[in-house]
From TrEMBL:
Gene behind this protein: alc
Domain of life: Bacteria
Entry protein name: Probable allantoicase
Entry keyword set: Hydrolase, Purine metabolism
Enzyme class name: hydrolase
Organism of provenance: Planobispora rosea
């Protein structure tokens, strides 16, 4: 596994990604490429199109060319690495694949995307069957879409596009926004413990459907407390904090506190140590805050949070 996989998967379906078109999906649907979780498989489960696969699979090509799929990133950004996973495809995987990226603003149709200017970010590379393949990307440009090419045909279970979110925040000029939202460019940059789940879950879009979609730590036995640090979408003033313990019934923290960090690195209190309840969305007004670039969330002593929202104004 590569270090870039700790960054968000910009293409993930639950973060707004979509497979908008593919050259072929005769055996297995293209939408599987960006599903969350590891691909599953049950042997000898045959449908009208053959063995059922949790992935994207095309027919055997009898003419020149190769198959491709167009993916709209749910969160546009700078791509740091790509994972191409051929899990369970053993005799029907493509021997080679490449990935291209494009920046197309607005809401383009598939035909407009095909005519766009594409940049190769992963050159044509060898693949193995039933394996994850990790490719680092060295490109500082912001992209909105990727195209997965496989040569000539076959099946790929998952495509992961890890990177740093770069949204267009000009849409919020003069308006308030969630300064801690992943989709607005925030990122968890430090965390004391992520034993059960990723801390970036707490700033993901939407509501957590179960406790695994939040952040949960191991049980502490040392008298300390757990914490995470959020780099805000931009320098801003936090006006309202939402601390959501939804789905956390017997493993919610007892208390929470919030500390702001300004551009010089100086810390200041946003929310003193405050009691929390299990399975509850909490909302706290923040008074007399000053501009912050980061916010540290301390949970006492341990446990989990479903979501953290920090509503405020960019400055």
């Amino acid at each position: 596994m590569s270090e870039f996989t700790r960054l968000p998967d910009l293409a993930l379906r639950t973060l707004g990604g979509s497979v908008v078109a593919a050259s072929d999906e005769s055996f297995a649907e293209k939408e599987s490429l960006i599903r969350p979780g590891h691909p599953g498989f049950r042997a000898e489960t045959f449908g009208a199109k053959g063995q059922v696969y949790d992935g994207w699979e095309t027919r055997r090509r009898r003419e020149p060319g190769h198959d491709w799929a167009l993916v709209r990133l749910g969160l546009p950004g700078v791509i740091r690495g790509v994972v191409i996973d051929t899990a369970w495809f053993k005799g029907n995987y493509p021997p080679h694949a490449s990935v291209e990226a494009a920046a197309v603003e607005g809401y383009p149709a598939p035909a407009e995307l095909l005519a766009a200017e594409w940049t190769e970010i992963v050159p044509r590379s060898d693949l193995k069957g039933d394996a994850e393949h990790f490719f680092e990307v060295a490109d500082e440009r912001r992209y909105t879409h990727v195209r997965l090419n496989m040569f000539p045909d076959g099946g790929i279970a998952r495509l992961r596009v890890h990177g740093e979110v770069r949204p267009d925040l000009s849409l919020y000029e003069g308006l308030g926004l969630d300064l801690a939202a992943l989709e607005n460019g925030a990122l968890v940059t430090g965390c004391s413990d992520e034993f059960y789940s990723s801390p970036n879950n707490v700033i993901a879009p939407g509501l957590a459907r179960h406790q695994a979609e939040g952040w949960e730590t191991a049980r502490r036995r040392d008298g300390g407390n757990d914490w995470l640090t959020i780099r805000l979408a931009g320098t801003g003033v936090v006006k309202l904090a939402e601390i959501d313990t939804r789905n956390l019934l017997f493993n919610a923290p007892g208390w929470v506190s919030l500390t702001g960090v300004d551009a010089s690195g100086e810390e200041f209190e946003l929310l003193p140590k405050t009691r929390l309840q299990p399975d509850t969305p909490h909302r706290f007004r923040i008074e007399d805050a000053r501009p912050a670039t980061h916010v540290r969330v301390d949970i006492h002593p341990d446990g989990g949070l479903a979501r953290v929202r920090l509503h405020g104004l960019l400055v």
